[in-house]
Every structure is written in structure tokens, then in C-alpha cells.
Write a structure and sequence with these properties.
The chain is an alpha+beta fold. The chain contains 3 helices and 4 strands. Helix 2 crosses helix 3.
């Protein structure tokens, strides 16, 4: 698949250096997970559960308060060699896709870039 057709792919390596690969619009965030999970991530963001978010090197990091347990979880996001988003979250969510905390962090980062 061509990178321009993949909503989870980062900016191409030859793109201008000032483009932030973590600055995803709403459509690209929606393409990452099922609609109910995206809605839950948006709700986490709107409820101000993303307590910290920032960039360190080529990684986006965040601390997010879980809505169910009210515990905070730390996460890091990066991209693989093919430009696909990789998420490491301390939550126990099953599966290989992004969790609610990852989606909330992406919404928070997008809000800072708006």
C-alpha cells in the first residue's frame, strides 16, 4: 500500500522536517481503531484525563488517567520502519492495536497543534 493511502503511516522520510508525524487529524485517528474505542479515547481527552503529553526525540509520550480505575498509565508512541504507529501503554488492554489511552493522547496532541 502506498504511504499516502495508509492513514496510520507517518510522513514520508523526504517530507519537510517541521511536519509532526504525531499530529493526526480526526479522520486519521478514527482510522486507527474501532469507532467505540475512538469515542472512548475522545471522551478521555475531553474529560481532561490526559495529564501530560510531549515529544522526546522521535517518541510521543503521555500520562493518561484511566476513566474506569482512575489510575494513571504512561505510554509512548513511535513509528516502525514502514511508518506505522506503534504504541507501548502500561494498561492491561488486550490486542495489538492502540488502546483508549493512546487515542486520548493523540487527541490531546492534535489539540495542542490546532
Amino acid at each position: 500500500m502506498h504511504p499516502d493511502q495508509d492513514p496510520t503511516a507517518a510522513q514520508p522520510a523526504n517530507s519537510p522536517p517541521d511536519l509532526d508525524p504525531f499530529l493526526l487529524d480526526h479522520d486519521r485517528i478514527q482510522a486507527l481503531a474501532p469507532a467505540d474505542l475512538v469515542r472512548a479515547g475522545l471522551l478521555h481527552f475531553r474529560d481532561n484525563r490526559v495529564t501530560e503529553v510531549g515529544i522526546e526525540g522521535d517518541r510521543l509520550w503521555a500520562t493518561v488517567e484511566d476513566a474506569e480505575t482512575e489510575e494513571t498509565v504512561d505510554l509512548h508512541l513511535t513509528f516502525d520502519a514502514d511508518g506505522h504507529l506503534l504504541s507501548e501503554c502500561a494498561c492491561p488492554a488486550p490486542g495489538s492495536g492502540p488502546c483508549v489511552h493512546t487515542l486520548a493522547a493523540l487527541f490531546a496532541w492534535a489539540d495542542r497543534g490546532a
